[in-house]
Amino acid sequence: MLYPDAINWFEIPSENFERAVKFYSALYDTELRTTQMDTGGELPMPMAYLPRGEGVGERGVGGAVIYLPDHKPGMKGPLLYLNGGEDLRVMLDRIVPAGGQILVTKTLITKEIGYYAIFIDSEGNHMALHSDH
């Protein structure tokens, strides 16, 4: 069986759900849609969906900001590269005003691969951006 993408869903943990939603809403310059996901436990899990392709049949990796007491943000573990759009500088310029910290500014990987930047979000997660330009 062939898999079109190596990843199809991700969740970004938060210590303070409202603060994290505010941060990622500012990063993407849009209001994130929120819901309460039934986890089968005592409390529902707050979830805010990050932007992705819309419409029936649209494919693409989806993700959300979540809050679960035992799912902690941090600097260890996988480094998640978010789509930085046409030019990641636009999103990069929103990080500090939204409460994050830039660790690596916009940096060329190669002309064929594009650019990356690394940051810490409002919750202390080690994250990255990628764009072609």
Poorly predicted sequence stretches spanning 5 or more consecutive residues:
none
Strand content: 35-45%
What count of structural domains? 1
The chain-level structural class is alpha/beta
CATH superfamily: 2,3-Dihydroxybiphenyl 1,2-Dioxygenase, domain 1
Main pleated sheet:
4 strands, mixed
Report the CATH C-level class. Answer: Alpha Beta
Form type = globular
CATH topology: 2,3-Dihydroxybiphenyl 1,2-Dioxygenase, domain 1
Order of helices and strands: EHEEEEHEEE
The whole-angstrom Rg is 15 Å
Helix content: 10-25%
Q: In the CATH classification, which architecture applies? A: Roll
The counted number of beta strands is 8
Q: Distance N terminus to C terminus?
A: 33 Å
Q: Average pLDDT value?
A: 91
How would you describe the overall organization of this protein?
By secondary structure, the chain is α/β, with parallel strands linked by helices. The chain has a single domain (9-131), classed as 2,3-Dihydroxybiphenyl 1,2-Dioxygenase, domain 1. Helix content is 14%, strand content 35%. It has 2 helices and 8 strands; from the N terminus they run βαββββαβββ. The chain has helices spanning 17-28, 89-95, and strands spanning 9-13, 33-37, 45-49, 62-66, 80-83, 101-110, 114-120, 126-131. The strands form 2 sheets. A 4-stranded mixed sheet has the order 1-4-3-2, with helices on one face. Helix 1 (17-28) runs antiparallel to helix 2 (89-95). It is globular and about 50 Å long.
